[in-house]
């Protein structure tokens, strides 16, 4: 297996994933509820230029589908049968005909409907709060779903980390203030798309995953002032640093005890611990090679690949 040469299977998979129908239609012809919350410039560029994602981004997107699949399995297989609809399209009317949303799941109970919006997360949410962009999206869904059905409607955002199995849920109350902000963002974005006027970007932690990051004037100009989400991550990283040292010390102490006691497995009240011996990697002494076989050394020794180091000060 080579780490540097990509196997052709991935070119094949990339094409297939790029060709997957999102079920959301032509997104340049309407403002979707998820466009409203994200960076206006990104939404604008993706609508006007289109967006091609590489395999890595496509794989990350698939985690969202996995999270949805998990929630669906829990809803559809529950012994109590519920009225479950998926990808329910709701639309604005009057001056808002260009606004649309696709609700992940709509569960109908006799007295109310419940919107379930699924999110995939890869790290704990700052302050364990839902992202503002999710709130805009769900406020719009609440309003449009209620207008469409005439029924009482509430919403829950379910956030799942498909790597660690951690999960959070947030009950979302309807808020006129948030709805108005969401609608105002929708109208600004729609006007920008109609008049082909590129809006300013809104720098956040999500810039790291944005397809337009290399050409984004806002990010290049304003990247130094950390956005709130990244600032919260830096603070949390600093808080966790002592724990990293503590964990390393604890491991050393536990290993030392198990070595002294000549045991490979220890049973505790809550957890067990197992120690195994991993074969060391073969190494080459660069100094020896250079001193004794300089002609070989010149041919085989390469400069190490540069890597990024982060220091929180
Ligand atoms: S890089 Fe950041 S600011 Fe620029 S378009 Fe993308 S999300 Fe917006």
Characterise the protein shown here:
The protein is α/β, with parallel strands linked by helices and 313 residues long. The chain has a domain at 27-202: Lambda Exonuclease, Chain A (Alpha-Beta Complex), CATH 3.90.320. It is built from ten helices and eight strands. The protein has helices spanning 8-18, 33-37, 40-48, 55-76, 132-149, 176-195, 217-222, 228-261, 286-292, 294-300, and strands spanning 31-32, 83-91, 99-108, 113-120, 153-160, 167-172, 265-267, 272-274. Strands 1, 2, 3, 4, 5 and 6 form a six-stranded mixed β-sheet that branches. Strands 7-8 form a two-stranded antiparallel sheet. Helix 3 (40-48) packs across helix 6 (176-195), helix 5 packs across helix 6 (176-195) and helix 9 (286-292) packs across helix 10 (294-300). The longest helix has 34 residues, at 228-261. It is globular. The protein starts with 7 loop residues before the first helix and ends in a 13-residue tail after the last helix. The model has no long low-confidence stretch (mean pLDDT 90). Iron/sulfur cluster binds next to helix 3 and helix 7. The site of iron/sulfur cluster has 14 residues, from helix 3 and helix 7.
């Amino acid at each position: 297996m080579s780490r540097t040469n990509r196997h052709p299977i991935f070119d094949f998979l990339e094409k297939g994933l790029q060709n997957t129908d999102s079920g959301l239609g032509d997104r340049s012809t309407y403002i979707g509820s998820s466009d409203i919350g994200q960076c206006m410039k990104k939404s604008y560029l993706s609508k006007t230029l289109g967006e091609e994602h590489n395999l890595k981004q496509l794989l990350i997107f698939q985690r969202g589908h996995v999270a949805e699949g998990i929630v669906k399995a829990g809803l559809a297989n529950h012994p109590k049968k519920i009225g479950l609809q998926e990808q329910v399209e709701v639309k604005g009317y009057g001056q808002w005909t260009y606004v649309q949303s696709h609700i992940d799941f709509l569960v109908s109970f006799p007295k109310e409907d419940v919107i379930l919006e699924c999110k995939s997360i890869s790290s704990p949410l700052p302050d364990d709060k839902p992202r503002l962009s999710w709130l805009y999206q769900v406020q719009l869904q609440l309003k449009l779903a209620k207008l469409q059905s005439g029924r009482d409607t509430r919403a829950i955002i379910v956030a799942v980390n498909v790597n660690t199995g951690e999960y959070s849920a947030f009950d979302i109350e309807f808020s006129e203030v948030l709805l108005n902000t969401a609608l105002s963002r929708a109208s600004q974005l729609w006007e920008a798309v109609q008049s082909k006027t590129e809006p300013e970007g809104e720098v956040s932690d999500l810039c790291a995953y944005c397809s337009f990051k290399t050409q984004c004037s806002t990010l290049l100009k304003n990247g130094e002032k950390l956005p709130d989400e990244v600032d919260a991550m830096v603070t949390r990283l600093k808080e966790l640093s002592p724990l990293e040292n503590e964990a390393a010390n604890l491991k050393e102490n536990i290993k030392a005890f198990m070595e002294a006691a000549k045991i490979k497995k220890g049973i505790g009240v809550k957890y067990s611990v197992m120690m195994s011996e991993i074969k060391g990697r073969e190494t080459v002494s660069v100094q020896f090679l250079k001193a004794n076989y300089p002609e070989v050394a010149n041919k085989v020794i390469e400069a190490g690949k540069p890597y990024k180091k982060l220091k929180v000060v």
